[in-house]
């Protein structure tokens, strides 16, 4: 079991190491895309960061309640949604790589695939919310659910906004607004979508796993 | 010297490692594991995953250190805060 896993992930690690070496001489001044999106991204990350710490420190005073309530969460859904968002982010990376090579059609296809994965996330999350609300769980049930629902709904809204942004980028890409030379719009949308992914990467272990 | 061609793109390598770390996180949850060591391992994986997304997906490895370091500091602060809160909960 271990040998195939090593054989599978060793080339992956080598690919990452090679990329790090190659990228040493291509430093650019600013982050990719419109700089305004980075102000927005850091503001959003700050808001989520405060939310995460509020959850963690409130949990410290209500450990038993949080551990007991956490058992009712659907961890499979959380894990699948993590994989879905990671994969969606990967598709966006491929879309950006495609437009940088001037391959507009591939850029559109990768973006469509990324949005479809976003749709899958939304569907899974809605099913999870439906199950909780059907069981009579609400923001008022207890402190854990107040945090669980607020955090995940807040993130859910960001997923919807990210899908809207990617949809707009896809529309423009389809109309031929981007090229190998001019693709800042794709970079801007991609950066926002990766932020949505990054936040879920912290949220999943914090809310669904840590006990 | 023969240069070996790696069939996996860097971004695909990152995606595979992110998938692996997510499955490990899920496995820990399913096994019902807890305690300081486990939580620190989970938070270390959050740091690694977050930095990989920032560097390879967001493309921050290509920008000046001052922009890249902001996200690293953010991840360190959030993860350290969560670890501190967890330790407070044990006492």
Rg from alpha-carbon coordinates of chain B: 16 Å
Enumerate how many helices of chain A there are, as a single number.
7
* Share in helix of chain B: over 70%
Write down the oligomeric state. Answer: heterodimer
In percent, how helical is the residue content of chain A?
over 70%
Order of H and E elements of chain B: HHH
CATH topology of the domain at 75-211 in chain A: Four Helix Bundle (Hemerythrin (Met), subunit A)
Within CATH, the superfamily of the domain at 75-211 in chain A carries the name: Cytochrome c oxidase, subunit III, four-helix bundle
Largest interface: A-B, 61 and 56 residues
Q: What amount of the residues of chain A lies in strands?
A: under 5%
Main sheet overview of chain A: none
Our count of domains of chain B comes out at 1
Structural class of chain A: mainly alpha
Mean pLDDT of chain B: 91
C-alpha end-to-end distance of chain B:
59 Å
Question: What key phrases describe this protein's structure?
Answer:
heterodimer; A: 211 residues; mainly alpha; Four Helix Bundle (Hemerythrin (Met), subunit A); 7 helices; 81% helix; B: 91 residues; 3 helices; 0% strand
Can you characterise this structure?
- The complex is a heterodimer of chains A (211) and B (91).
- By secondary structure, chain A is an all-alpha fold.
- Chain A has 7 helices and no strands.
- Chain A is elongated.
- Chain B is mainly α.
- Chain B has one domain.
- Chain B has helices spanning 10-30, 36-57, 65-90.
- In chain B, helix 1 (10-30) runs antiparallel to helix 2 and helix 2 runs antiparallel to helix 3.
- The longest helix of chain B is centred in the C-terminal third of the chain and has 26 residues, at 65-90.
- Chains A and B meet through helix 1, helix 2, helix 4 and helix 7 of A and helix 1, helix 2 and helix 3 of B.
């Amino acid at each position: 079991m271990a040998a195939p896993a090593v054989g599978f992930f060793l080339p992956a690690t080598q690919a990452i190491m090679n990329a790090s070496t190659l990228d040493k001489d291509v430093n650019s001044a600013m982050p990719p895309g419109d700089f305004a999106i980075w102000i927005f991204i850091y503001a959003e990350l700050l808001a989520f960061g405060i939310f995460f710490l509020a959850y963690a420190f409130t949990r410290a005073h209500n450990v038993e309640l949080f551990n007991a309530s956490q058992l009712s969460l659907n961890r499979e859904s959380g894990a699948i949604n993590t994989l879905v968002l990671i994969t969606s982010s990967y598709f966006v990376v491929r879309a950006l790589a495609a437009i940088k090579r001037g391959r507009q059609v591939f850029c559109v296809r990768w973006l469509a695939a990324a949005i479809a994965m976003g749709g899958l996330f939304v569907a899974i999350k809605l099913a999870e919310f439906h199950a909780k609300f059907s069981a009579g769980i609400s923001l008022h049930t207890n402190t854990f659910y107040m945090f669980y629902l607020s955090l995940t709904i807040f993130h859910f809204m960001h997923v919807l906004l990210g899908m809207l942004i990617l949809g707009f980028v896809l529309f423009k890409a389809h109309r031929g607004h981007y090229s190998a030379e001019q693709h800042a719009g794709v970079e801007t949308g991609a950066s926002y979508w990766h932020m949505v992914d990054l936040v879920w990467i912290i949220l999943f272990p914090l809310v669904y796993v840590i006990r | 010297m023969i240069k070996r061609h790696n069939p996996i793109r860097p971004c695909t390598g990152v995606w595979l490692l992110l998938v692996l770390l997510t499955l490990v996180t899920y496995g820990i949850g399913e096994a019902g594991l807890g305690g300081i060591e486990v939580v620190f391992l989970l938070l270390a994986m959050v740091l690694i995953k977050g930095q990989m997304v920032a560097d390879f997906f967001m493309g921050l490895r290509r920008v000046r250190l001052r922009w890249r370091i902001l996200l690293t500091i953010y991840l360190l602060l959030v993860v350290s805060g969560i670890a501190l809160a967890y330790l407070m909960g044990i006492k």
